[in-house]
Amino acid sequence: SPTGSRDQYDVIDKHSQSGLDLVERYIKFVKERTEIEQSYAKQLRSLTKKYAKRGSKEEQDCKFSNHASFQEILNELNDYAGQRELIAENMMTGICVELTKYLQELKQERKTHLSDAKKAQQTLESSFKHLESTKKRFAKEWAEADKATQQAEKTESDLNATRLDVEKAKQHAHARTHTAEECRNDYAAQLQKYNKEQNLFYYSEIPQIFNKLQDMDERRVRRLAEGYCQFSDIEKKVLPIISKCLEGISAAGVKINEKQDSVLFIEQHKSGFERPGDVEFEDYSQGIKPATSDSSLNPPKTVLKNLNKTINHPPAAEDFSHLPPEQRKKRLQAKIDDITKELQKTQDQSDALEKMKGVYEQNPQMGDPSSLEPQITETAQNIGRLRGELAKYETWLSEAVGGEESSNTINNNTQHGVVAADQSNIYTEFDDEFDDIESPIGQCTALYTFQGNSEGTISITEGELLSIMEEDKGDGWMRVLRASGEEGYIPSSYVKLTP
């Protein structure tokens, strides 16, 4: 009986079904991925909406680059959310919908092949049944013929039997034998027919159907593999635009200009009032003799006149040459640091623009690379200008450092501190960062009273004992500490050293 193919049929049935189940599982997986993507995009959109500014107060703020850039970041994030929605949409149509259609076709095709295999199996089985019945009939007829032949022989040898009886028995046996032989031929023909059918079934029909099922399964695997790749490709396609959004966010950060924001704020809040004039120096020391009679220590009146004069700040020079050497170095260094910072920022901006230009050239649908040219040119000009500035200030700084020794000798010979007094009010800015606890390097006594009116200087009273914290660096000033804990600069010529 033909049962061998049935076991094979069951195995193939199971295997092809599990393949279809996998396609179905993958469709479901992608569907759930798109739901995550959509809810992510939705949350991002409501987040940007929540932080987006509305109202006149905000419009006012948005003139400042740091406020405006945050708005740009929100806009970019909103566009980014749009790209996430696009991923979800393309996965839905490109993978879920297409694979679902394909799955229906596969199910139909599988059904057809399996029913063809079943039909072939049934045909072979019914043919086998027919063979069995012809075989049985042949066996039965042959037994009957055998019996009839024996009966005829028996009748012939019976002395009592008539010739007619014998003739009759012979004819009956002959007829029976003839029928049996016909059944034998029938059986032989049927056997030949069945063997041919069985051969066709095992060597042709079933292999063909199983090959079709195998081909169908391989097509399914190939199509599923494409679906797997699509899962990544769909997202890859929007990556240039996602990158562009992220570049936009970086660019919004890079282009913030804190100095410009400050200038804008100052412009907005200018009061228009004139600033108060300088407070005049009131001279109480005229006519009072100092304690010592040594007239050489008496400051000439010209000093005080000069002091009055210097309260009006001299015009500031761009290279800070109006400042004493130590202060000048500090100011030049600070300026160099500022320019270096600005240069680094402009350089970053230039890199960001070049990167964006590259993205546009690769993906023209995202933007026109030539539209970035004006910005690139402007940034390049700024870099050039800042490099020039940097070189200029660095030259001045090396001058200031190199010129220190020569200036010492000149200032040490100044007569009666006239020069020192002349420079009294020049200190517009002192560094207050004397964090390290310093110990005094000497003591001195104030010869005259000095009103420290400008930033960094302190007032001292005639006869006061002071601690020296920093000696004269050749610019006519020294830093001292009063008993009260106050610390600052005073003209070196106003004190005498205490041994």
UniProtKB/TrEMBL annotation:
One of its GO terms (molecular function) is lipid binding. It is found in: Cell membrane; Cytoplasm, Cell cortex; Cytoplasm, Cytoskeleton; Lysosome. Pfam families: FCH, HR1_TOCA, SH3_1. InterPro entries: AH/BAR_dom_sf, F_BAR_dom, FCH_dom, HR1_CIP4_FNBP1L, HR1_rho-bd, HR1_TOCA, SH3-like_dom_sf, SH3_domain. Residues 103-172, 329-363 form a coiled coil. The keyword Cell membrane applies. SUPFAM superfamilies: BAR/IMD domain-like, SH3-domain, t-snare proteins. Residues 439-499 form the SH3 domain. Keywords: Cell membrane, Coiled coil, Cytoplasm, Cytoskeleton, Endocytosis, Lipid-binding, Lysosome, Membrane, SH3 domain. One of its GO terms (cellular component) is cell cortex. Residues 322-399 form the REM-1 domain. Belongs to the FNBP1 family. This is Thyroid hormone receptor interactor 10. It comes from Seriola lalandi dorsalis. The lineage of its organism: Eukaryota, Metazoa, Chordata, Craniata, Vertebrata.
